[in-house]
Design a protein that fits this description.
Keywords: Oxidoreductase. InterPro entries: NAD(P)-bd_dom_sf, SDR_fam. This is SDR family oxidoreductase. There is one protein chain. With 229 residues, the chain is of the alpha/beta class. The chain has one domain (2-223): NAD(P)-binding Rossmann-like Domain (Rossmann fold), CATH 3.40.50.720. It has 7 helices and 6 strands, in the order αβαβαβαβαβααβ. The strands form 2 sheets. The chain has a 4-stranded parallel β-sheet, sandwiched between helices. It has a two-stranded parallel ribbon with strand order 1-2. The protein is globular and about 50 Å long.
Length: 229
């Protein structure tokens, strides 16, 4: 929500694609900055058809789509040799993190005009699996980075930039089902020896969405406390 808050404070109109609509007081707070805020339902396993329908609904509501923040993320922890791993959860992770993100970016790119921005959220462990039990999750995030580099070439001639923000361990992850052991390992593996704040990720996204990033595309910005240093 930190990114949504930052965009709202900047006066942006917001199209929020969520499985569960935020509470009324949250929407009221976002709208208090003057921009329009509309929620669009989405599923845990979005596909090409759903992504296309979502983008069409956004265009119908707002008339245009300038910035896409693709935050498709499902994280499943488990060793690859674990006989008790939840295969359904792993399949949902694959569908959400790769198929869903690809479909959303492709659908959005078709309606963007020159100056459009695609910003995908990835993970710092896409480049380096620093903790056990996250091999498959890391692979899905690496796929996002590779896809966006290719997409930058495809969309560059149209003046649309495509970048990735790779996120490290955040303090808010404690409430997101991440194990304390995993977070502790990721914290100790970064240079700053602390967990990040959601607002720090929001600042990076705002930069890539702003005028100062017009000549940046195909890039990966690590917001991870130096995990990849």
């Amino acid at each position: 929500m930190a990114t949504v808050q930052a965009l709202a404070e900047g006066g942006s109109d917001l199209a929020l694609a969520l499985e569960v609509e935020p509470e009324a007081h949250i929407l009221e707070s976002l709208r208090s900055y003057g921009g329009r805020v509309v929620c669009f339902p989405t599923s845990s396993r979005p596909n090409t058809v759903e992504a296309t329908q979502l983008v069409r609904a956004v265009i119908a509501a707002f008339g245009r789509l300038d910035v896409l923040v693709a935050n498709n993320v499902r994280r499943v922890e488990g060793q690859i040799d674990d006989d008790d791993v939840d295969e359904d959860a792993l399949e949902e992770q694959l569908s959400m993190n790769i198929k869903g993100a690809f479909a959303l970016i492709k659908a959005a790119s078709k309606v963007m005009n020159e100056g459009g921005r695609v910003i995908a959220l990835g993970s710092s462990i896409a480049d380096r699996v620093g903790t056990p039990g996250l091999a498959e999750f890391a692979a899905t995030r690496a796929a996002i980075a590779a896809f966006c580099k290719g997409a930058a070439h495809d969309l560059g001639p149209r003046g649309i930039t495509v970048n990735v923000v790779q996120v490290g361990a955040l303090a808010s992850d404690v409430d997101g089902g991440h194990s304390q052991e995993t977070l502790a390992a990721e914290r100790e593996a970064n240079v700053l020896k602390r967990l990040g704040q959601p607002s720090e990720v929001a600042h990076a996204i705002m930069f890539l969405a702003g005028p100062g990033a017009m000549f940046i595309t195909g890039s990966v910005l690590n917001v991870d406390g130096g995990y990849n240093a």
